[in-house]
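Schema walk-through. Below, the input block comes first and the output block second. Nothing else is stored per chain. Lengths vary across the set, and this one has 300 residues.
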Amino acid sequence: SLWDFDLGVVCGTASQPRQGVAENRMADHDDHYQAVAKVYSLAVFYDSSGPFVKWLQCQIAEVLKLTPEDRLADVGGGDGEFALTLARASNLSASNVVVIEPSAAMLHSAPPSPRAADVADGDRPTAAAHGRVNLGAVEWCDLAAGDLEAGPQDGFTCVLLKEMVHHLEAPRSATFQLMRERRMRNGGRVVIVTRPQHDFDYPFFDAARQVWVKNQPPTAEIKAALTEAGFSNVSHTMIRHPLALKTDEWCTMVQNRFWSTFSHFTDAELQAGTDEIRSNAGGSDTLEFEERMIIITATK
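--- output ---
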């Protein structure tokens, strides 16, 4: 099945309560991603014109070190803007960038592809060059080499997995091995951008903190899976960036389930959670915290 990832955020006015199975819990994925696709770029974490995203792009560009000769795959890349911005900064042609994305709504929010042929919903990929592939990470890795790329010698030199590795089902090493063998050139680099399991600074309410810890894989576990899959030079670093958001803005983001962490709660539970956040803030109208992201790198 397609993996589920948490791009996006709903900022501004909170959405109306969503009804469904297990009353008021998150609507089905199609509805969720349809809503996310329309507004996710408004968030501080995903606003491509904002200072945080520009900072993050610089950090990742420094790690990727793209050249005009590279081929970049952005797995779970949403509308593709992040990857294309990285490419433009490195004089890498857009024709050498492929976004692999399971959400059709996110793909439909993207600007026109630089290629003539995209993979439409439900179509099976072919050997032709594509700007966007409507597949999940596992399905993309599991394709026979000739279905999408000719093989490792004609595969990708760089694979980026940004904010999605926690949605890959265990054992992750199996997916990493397929990616290494079927999608990457020898000497290719994989870059995983994730967040810490414990050492985070987000203004969560307590129950959300517990969900985060339960679902976020430890960095050591991800690195071990890469090593087991045959990658070498596996290492990681943590990057940090101070953030300040209005308390009302953050609470609205939480109530709109901007990360999948919050999809585990009913509307009433989220209301109680944001009340807890406001109480912890001591009446302050601004929340200051530090974004901490982990960049894991490995080489084929």
